[in-house]
Amino acid sequence: MTRSLEGRAEVAAAGLPPLLVRADRVAHTVAQGVHGRRRVGTGETFWQFRQYQPGDTPASIDWRQSAKRDHVFVREYEWEAAQSVWLWRDASPSMSYSSGRDLPTKRDRAELLCVALAGLMVRAGERVARLDGNERPATGRVALMRLATGLTKQAATSTGIPARANLPRHSRVVMFGDFLDPLEQTAAAVRGLSAQGVDGHLMQISDPVEDAWPFAGRVQFNGLEGEASQLVGRAETLRQAYRERLQQHRAGLQAICDSCGWGFGLHRTDHSPESALMALFVRLGQRSPR
Amino acid sequence: MLNLGALSFAAPLALAALITLPLLWWLLRAVPPAPQRVDFPPLRLLAGLLAREETPAHTPLWLLLLRMLVAALLILGIAHPIWNMANRLPGSGPLILAVDNGWASATDWAAKVRTMQGLIDEAARTSRPVAVLPAITDPAVPPSAAATGLTTAAEAHRIVGGLKPFPWSGERSAITGRLDTLNIDGSANIVWIADGVGQDDDRSFAERLQRAGSLRLLADDESLGPLMLLPPSLEGAEITLTVRRTITDGEATVVVRAVDADGKGLGLQSLTFVDGENETSAAFSLPTDLRNRIARLEIQNRAGAGSVALTDDRWRRRPVGLIATSATDTQPLLGARYYLRKALDPFSEIREGDYQELIDSKLSVLILPDYAGLTETDQAALDSWLRAGGVMVRFAGPALARQPDSLLPVTLRSGGRSLGGTMSWSRPTGLAPFPADSPFAGLPIPPDVQIRRQVLAEPSLDLPNRTWATLVDGTPLVTAERRDEGLLVLFHVTSNSEWSDLPLSGLFVDMLRRIVSESRGVLSDTGRATLPPLASLDGFGILGPPTVTATAIEAGGTATPVAGPRHPPGLYGADGATLALNIGTAEGSFGPITDLPAGVTTESYAGNDEIDIKPWLLLAAALLLLADFVIALGLRGLLRPALTGALALMLFSAAAAPDAQAQTARSDDRAAMEAALQTRLAAMDTGVPASNEVARAGLYGLTQALNRRSATDLGEPVLVSPERDDLSFYPLIYWRIDRQQQAMSDFAVSKLNDFLKNGGLLLIDQALGDGLGGASLAQLLRGLNVPPLAPAGEDHVLTRSFYLLNDFPGRWADNQVWVERDASADNDGVSSVVIGVNDWGSAWATDDAGRPLYAVTPGGDVQREMAYRFGVNLVMYALTGNYKADQVHVPAIMERLGQ
Predict the structure, then answer these.
(1) Across A40-49, B242-251, B342-351, B353-362, least confident range
(2) Which of B234, B513, B262, B574 minimizes the C-alpha distance to B364?
(3) Which of residues 131-190 of B touch A (CB under 8 A)?
(4) Residues with Cβ < 8 Å from B103, sequence gap 6 or more?
(5) ipTM
(6) How far apart are CA B777 and CA B46, in angstroms?
(7) Which of B39, B637, B850 has the CB atom closest to A222's CB atom?
(8) Distance from the A95 Cα atom to the nearest Cα atom in chain B, whole angstroms
(9) Which has the higher per-residue pLDDT, B856 or B825?
């Protein structure tokens, strides 16, 4: 019996990690809105024919095309500049948190963005790799699969931002995390990478509850990374102070990024991943200020 | 006992617990509510902020007050406060309740029980023994020692709870008889719970009671007194109602209600007692057909067997006989008797059967749908029945049109007439207004009734006189002839919708009603020696199964027996020939209790206004506790929507129970809607999961194949069980027999039979080939109407309904397939069962991805393809019927055309 199309598609999809499928969906939405890199340059993909102008090398003339018409035509290729992009997402226990049943954990969201971004990058011909893995940057579907599998298999650790010494110059680093560690730690890690001539972007992922502090009454707070739990008699009185602290912390992160020429963005798990990804991708598509 | 004005405490010691309240106050204050626990990742950011807040947590004051209130309510409740505590029992002697529980006591029985319980409560508080002496003890239960002697209050409560009025009158001498056996210390408090109906020996009864102690008579506080409804008398067409009362002074009105056998109200009639009279009568004005349906008359808002008069066959509906000419003509929507039955049902009793047995039973009307096979003897028998006063209605049809007989009001022309159609200029016509002398005169004629075919009468001189209804063009539609006492009516159309729309219209019902009312009613003659009890009234006048003590009544006896333990009021006889025994009788005296000795105090039942506050206090405490629980959860932040839902569910589960039922009913409806809105195949639920799964997967694969290859659009196949589901939605049911399957219940078998009879197709697959012997197949199919079978030959429609096939392989090949030998024309020539052993389910079965699940032997893919083709052919056969059968005749037709 012939197998139905859906049947075959299902079999083909069976090997894909679910994360990759979701990320594909997100990336696809964004890719339709972005048309970067569509310009003339050196590369292998045909881009357009153009009339010969004085100054063009004779070797670039497409004789077959020119023979059909009155004018002489030059074959142009699409600009291709493969970059390597290093992706990292925080796997610390504090990322495994979500305040509501219908919200994803911060880690889930970070991984989704990570793979979706990688998907967009791969489509654009870039090479991607995990910052805390030991694979070499690669492109194509296989690289994406490897990335997705590597991300989902990793257990929760609280190692912080890895310090890698051998990143190629002009590569990019994109980091997703809650960056709740003391500012000095983050600053040291970012400066260490930046010193290697690496451009980068930090995206802080937060839960709506972390932003809003909706607590009231008698509340016992438990940390997720081994902090001592804290009992608060009237939690509502702390709201103002907490929000100020959070603002300060974010301003500190922004300052660190600014000092290195890195980008810094905020994303909340109750917002759509597409918008965050779009902003991020546009930001990465621009030439860095350097 | 502690008395504070109108408030008394039955257990005042418990009040001492109130002094623990301050201690409770201190304890509750000291224990703060537990905090809400949350995980919070940015806890690091809080460092340094937290030391600032140090307020010790206390239970809020209002919550504290709430909890104190709960405790106080509990203590007060346990102290058992009573408002207006009654004090009706002087002295220390025992309490003796003399209870009238004959039929008259059913009025306000609940108030009587309440009064007795109040008295027993009072006796319990003053620790006196109690004796309960009813006038009638249950004849079905032997009296126990506790129930007859002096006993405790708790036991007395139990006895009173079990007391009930009996549907006959009790002798008060039974009470005095049992009083004699009691051993009474001192002067007893005797309370006579009276029903208000006087008996001959009331004075001596009261004196006997007074000898044991002080006597108090409790009577209904009502001006009307006990009432008795006499059986209605029939005078011609009128029903006369009579009600008796015990007292004679004052004017009063009662309302009598007529109810049919299903308990639906038919009419009300009010009767007014004139001052000075103890009896009133009125004629009950009801339309005839409603009157025929009366099953019982009852005085409204008066419980009791005396307020009910049952009616028997003398009031029954007119019996109408429907002659069955063939077994299948009751088929829904097509059969000859179907519309007749629907039309007659509202106002007459229908009997069906052979004409012989029908005219032997008593009938008022006999109906014969289209039939031409009456022999001379039959006609003579029917004619003599007719002349003796019967009414016979006949319907025309193809048979009668071919072969008219003599038992007709007019002479028919052979052949009939067709109006409209492709070969005719004429159009279907409607009815003309009924002639003024026709029994149908005045019936409105719906404009959409069209006659398409009819039989025609030979013109004759008396034809206009015999015509009851004509078409617009003047041809007779209904003709009738009087033969001696009898009446013979002919409808010139069929009794189903084949020739006309008449049977579909309301006019048909009205016409039949007029004809039936032309007939004479029939008084049934039971012809039985004894009438066994059929149903009995209980003390409250509710008709139920006969009581165990009820015995049969001798038929033909001179007098109807008086209602009593051996003959409780109710219905006697058998269905169709019943005799009603009622309490109401015009004989005997019916008066109030009078002539009492001096010293008897008389009170009414309403005197008891004691209010026990204890349950209310405890209920309030429980509700407040629940509120406290919810508040405590809220304070801890645990009151999430899910939990709130659970709480609400807990609270309202009792109230929501009927709602839940309604929901299941709705979901049943939804399942039916789904089944009805999309055609789908069904597999029989065999109760064996593995086998069911194969059948389901098989139908899934077949459905996919059908949707891909043909214009059918089938939904997901379903598993159905005749025990559970309505089968009428499915064109084809695939029954893959499993050897572990249990035999079906009779109910399921009858549903399957209905399915087969009304056009369903059942594919029976003995999937295991030789594994299941013929004997056990027969066992499984026991009771199922499997018609005679024959192998499906190469000319059978199954071989060409979609694909051209030579055989019907499944997982196995080369086995014979059996179908109905001569498929009846009712189901469009479609065989109702197809039986084989090829295990088609396994051959069709695919997984969701469309991959076949089982290998087929020996043929491989070609055989599987053939199996699918058989499946497609079968479904086409089930859905489209026999139209492809024409192809079977193509060679013959071609030959005839000279090709």
Answers:
(1) A40-49
(2) B513
(3) none
(4) B165, B166, B167, B168, B169, B304, B305, B306, B539, B563, B583
(5) 0.70
(6) 78
(7) B39
(8) 8
(9) B856
